[in-house]
Amino acid sequence: MSTQLPKIPLVFLGLGLYRAWIEIVYVGTWIPFPTLPIAGQDIFDGAMVLVLLACALLHRYVTPLFRKSMLLWAAAGAVSLGTIVNFLTLVFPAAAPLTALPSAITCGFGIALLILIWSELYACLSPYQVAVYYAASILAGAAVILICRGFILPYTGTAATLLPVASMACVLRSFSQVAPEDLPHKQATRHPLPWTPIALMSLYAFAYGLRENELTSVMGPMSSIGVIAASSIVLIGITRFRDKFDLDVMQRIALPSMVCSLVFVSAYNLVGTLFANICASLSYTAFSILIFCILCDLSRRFGFSAIMLFGLERGIRAIFSLLGRLVDNVVISIGGHSVLSDLVVAGAVAVLVIAFALILWRTPSQKEYWSVPRINPSGSNLSATSEIDDSAEHLAIACSLIRRQYELTPREEDVLSLLVQGKSIAEVAQNLVIAKGTAKVHVRHIYEKLSIHTREELKTLVFEQEVR
Predict the structure, then answer these.
(1) Other beta carbons within 10 Å of 81
(2) Residue 193 contacts by C-beta under 8 Å, 6 or more apart in sequence?
(3) Which has the minimum average pLDDT: 23-27, 277-281, 322-326, 430-434?
């Protein structure tokens, strides 16, 4: 088994820069901004939610977002400007009442567009690339935060001001490394909206919100031990086990970790808050990575607008996280973490466990087309100028070329790749989590488009592409 870390283009790690900015300036910040008591995380989140949901509803007019460079640079500039204003209130605290609200709204608007443009980029990539790059970006963001914690305030302010602009520069540069055929474009799909993954993420966000007040008082939500652990599990799993690593392991980690976090609220005297906080951030990050990969895969395979999917998912997620914080505040207001409040939390845990048992752990019906994507290192959506690691990537490029030449769908490309690897129809269906009859239909369409009749003809065609 290969233990070499997959090659990751540095520009794709720019996603971690906006994550770092969020913690430094608004969510879990260690800097005593005078603006935060006036218009802090809730106002920032509210502005972000409005923009996310508005873009989701108007996705037909917004997609493709990466072509609206002037709007994107204006958004990054707005976040940087809001950052400067927040840091200036440390010197001129009397200005905080006047600047807090517009600064929070401006930053929420800009960060929402940064979230959407990065989501649009990642939806162009294969599940393997999404998992590796996203996990690595989370770790990169945590590293930036830890470095900034060691800076004196002027240096922290300078770094925070530059982070949104640097993140935007990275994402726009990253689009140039995606094959032209895989770039986002206006498209329609007849499939119903995949509400189940979005609903599941919202439940986790609510549970996380119950712990967020305690979590952010001890460690940063973007740089905690749990965040680093969850991201490392993905990177180490893919590095050590390659295509044998199953992303589904993340949901098996997430549920017990979140339950432990909530249950240990009533065991502070025995364990302390640290363990509960680690479990909460581990669970939330693990499930966030899983849902991110699922939604990117749905956008790539079925033509969903990434702006619509992630606008809804991130917007609804933020709303439920806010509801969780509000519930925790109510619990605290009626006596803190007393016997009564522990009963409330225990009740919330019971509801969540039941919901997860009914939705998360059941076997999907045949009507549900969403699934946990299979991590296949041979999948690649980068342009031909990207470096090729091994023969598996040669095969991926050959299949990609055939797809473009014969106008195969992304799903048919997945089937083509498995057929060339010698997989049977049953194995193709199992790997792609589809019915055997559906796999046969895809194979028939591939043969018709390629004007071939046998598996040998198919392999010959792919081999000719490889040797060119």
Answers:
(1) 17
(2) 304, 312
(3) 430-434
Residue with tokens 């899983």: 290
> Which phi and psi (to 5°) does residue 28 adopt?
75, 20
- Helix, strand, or coil here: 407? coil
- Rounded to whole angstroms, the Cα distance separating 162 from 19 reads 13
Prediction pTM value: 0.80
Of 306, 337, 359, the one marking the end of a domain is 359
Task: Please give the DSSP secondary-structure letter assigned to residue 152.
Answer: -
With a cut of 60, say whether residue 387 has pLDDT above it.
Answer: no
> Structurally, how many domains does the chain consist of?
2
Are 56 and 165 part of one and the same domain? yes
Tens digits of per-residue pLDDT, 88-104? Answer: 999 999 999 999 999 99
pLDDT at 35 over 90: yes
Same domain? For 269 and 412 the reply is no
Phi, psi at residue 178, to the nearest 5°?
Answer: -95, 140
Q: What six digits make up the tokens of 23?
A: 């913690």
Q: Check whether residue 138 and residue 51 sit in a common domain.
A: yes
Based on the domain organization, do 18 and 142 belong to the same domain? yes
Neighbours of 10 (CB within 10 A): 11
For tokens 């460079």, the residue is 69
Tokens encoding 117: 């443009």
Tell me: do 398 and 353 sit in the same domain. no
Most confidently predicted of 58-62, 236-240, 462-466: 58-62
Residues in the chain, how many?
Answer: 468
* CATH number for the domain that contains residue 424: 1.10.10.10
Q: Is residue 77 part of a domain?
A: yes
Contact 277, 245 (CB under 8 A): no
| Enclosing domain of residue 132 | 10-179+192-359
Q: What's the pLDDT at 1?
A: 42
